[in-house]
Write a structure and sequence with these properties.
single chain, 441 residues, alpha/beta, Lyase, Ornithine Decarboxylase, Chain A, domain 1, 2 domains
């Protein structure tokens, strides 16, 4: 039995859906069609673990499932392609303990965006001297404690923060690098989050960095950091921003009259969410680094979504099916209370029916259990579904569990499961909302 791909999504239906009936062994032609529709890594994770994904959903109702083998392969491959570039895992994308441990071992370190993340990364076994800390609005205590811990680099967001950090580093003889986060005059047109170019609450304006009054700021710093935007899937845009970053770094090095210790080019590498989405050409970016050969003791980038988005799948079961006027509605065990990002940002994640269902005359609108029309996953074209069938949302490894409003309307949280060496292991059970409602009593 063939699968059915969704037509162009509408605003009401939000996300495209692919129908993969249970028990239908994909023929070679079907496999080719699926891989063309689904992003490459997501398609591999789905095809390799389909039965396990369905089993997890039926056991738990809803869960995030992460393929650690795919995550390990992803970072090893990227390290080989970007030879000589340090890669830091931006743990805000997914702070699961198992992922932090994996990237502490296979990446060059961990990038944190709060002092809470810093403490947790260390608790998970990441060495302090392999952690970089980038976040606006750090408190003086957080700046002081980070330097005392001897983290690899502190990315400085304001002139006042630099003054504090410089005095503390002198007092405790720390080796922590003080790195200026620069808001470059020109940024990028990022599809989701633009963080440089023009007015920004991130970093120190380029004009301020090179103002005569800031000479000590440059003189006593160790390097620069620029993060321009996220979910960038065109290599030319990434390379254009890297060129701007390099020019700023070269100008700082001329003022200091010495080679910089550290240049962090940011990252923002994007991933395809739909079959026709452009896939980032990492090879071109690797060639740029080889040809331009930025001069610093350490050349770094930070990646979160690119490393973990495609290795994660959100699975949930259908609770009820009903007809209203001319439409069929299937409500699932968990909605945006468990996976907020698609509804929050408008990201269009592919949705797949992976167990149950059969060919039929109707289109089925799939949504969560929440009392709001915003809680919608998408539409399955031409099928019949039943209670207990399993739905999977792909590219769910980034900004999923930790970003979602889990206790909204009193539903249980999704579980979290890792697949390591082909074996699924539950690492976080579902949480009863009563535990949250009773906090503080």
């Amino acid at each position: 039995m063939s699968y059915f791909a969704a037509r162009e999504h509408t605003l009401r239906d939000r996300h495209p859906v692919v129908f993969l009936p249970e028990g239908s062994a994909p023929r070679s032609e079907q496999t080719h069609m699926v891989s063309r529709k689904l992003s490459r890594l997501s398609s591999t994770v789905l095809s390799q673990h389909r039965e396990q994904l369905a089993g997890v959903a039926r056991q738990h109702g809803s869960a995030y499932v992460y393929d650690l083998d795919a995550a390990r392969d992803r970072i090893i491959d990227l390290k080989q392609r970007l030879n000589g570039v340090s890669i830091y895992y931006a743990m805000k994308a997914n702070p699961l303990r198992e992922l932090i441990k994996l990237y502490a071992e296979f990446a060059d370190g961990i990038e944190v965006a709060s002092f809470g993340e810093l403490e947790y990364a260390i608790a998970c076994g990441a060495p302090a001297d392999k952690i970089v800390f980038a976040s606006p609005a750090k408190t003086e205590r957080e700046v002081c404690r980070s330097i005392e811990l001897g983290i690899r680099a502190l990315h400085i967001e304001t002139v006042d923060e630099f003054r504090t950090a410089h005095l503390v580093r002198q007092a405790c003889y720390s080796g922590t690098l003080l790195v200026l986060r620069v808001n470059t005059d020109v940024g990028v047109q990022a599809p989701l989050e633009q963080m440089a170019g023009g007015a920004s609450r991130f970093g120190i304006d380029e004009a301020v960095v090179f103002a005569p009054a800031s000479r000590n700021l440059v003189q006593f710093s160790d390097g620069i950091h620029v993060y321009a935007g996220s979910q960038l899937r065109e290599a030319s845009i990434v390379i254009g921003q890297f060129e701007r970053t390099l020019r700023v770094a070269q100008r700082v090095a001329r003022i200091k009259r010495q080679r910089l210790k550290y240049i962090n080019f940011g990252g923002g590498f994007g991933v395809p969410h739909q079959g026709d989405d452009l896939e980032l050409d990492v090879g071109s970016i690797a060639c740029w680094f080889t040809e331009r050969q930025p001069s610093a003791r350490e050349i770094a980038i930070e990646l979160g979504r690119y490393l973990v988005s495609e290795i994660g799948v959100f699975v949930t079961t259908i609770r009820s099916v009903k007809r209203s006027h001319e439409r069929i509605f299937a409500s699932t065990d968990c909605g945006f209370n468990g996976f907020l990002r698609p509804a929050f940002t408008g990201d269009h994640h592919e949705v797949v029916l992976i167990a149950g269902g059969e060919e039929g005359p109707d289109d089925v609108a799939v949504s969560g259990p929440l009392c709001t029309p915003l809680d919608s996953f998408g539409v399955i074209r031409g099928c019949e579904v039943r209670t207990g069938d399993v739905v999977a949302v792909l590219n769910a490894g980034a900004y999923g569990w930790s970003m979602s409003p889990h206790f909204f309307l009193g539903h249980h949280t999704p579980a979290e499961v890792v697949i390591d060496a082909g074996r699924p292991v539950v690492v976080r059970n579902r949480v009863n909302p009563l535990h949250y409602f009773d906090l503080g009593r």
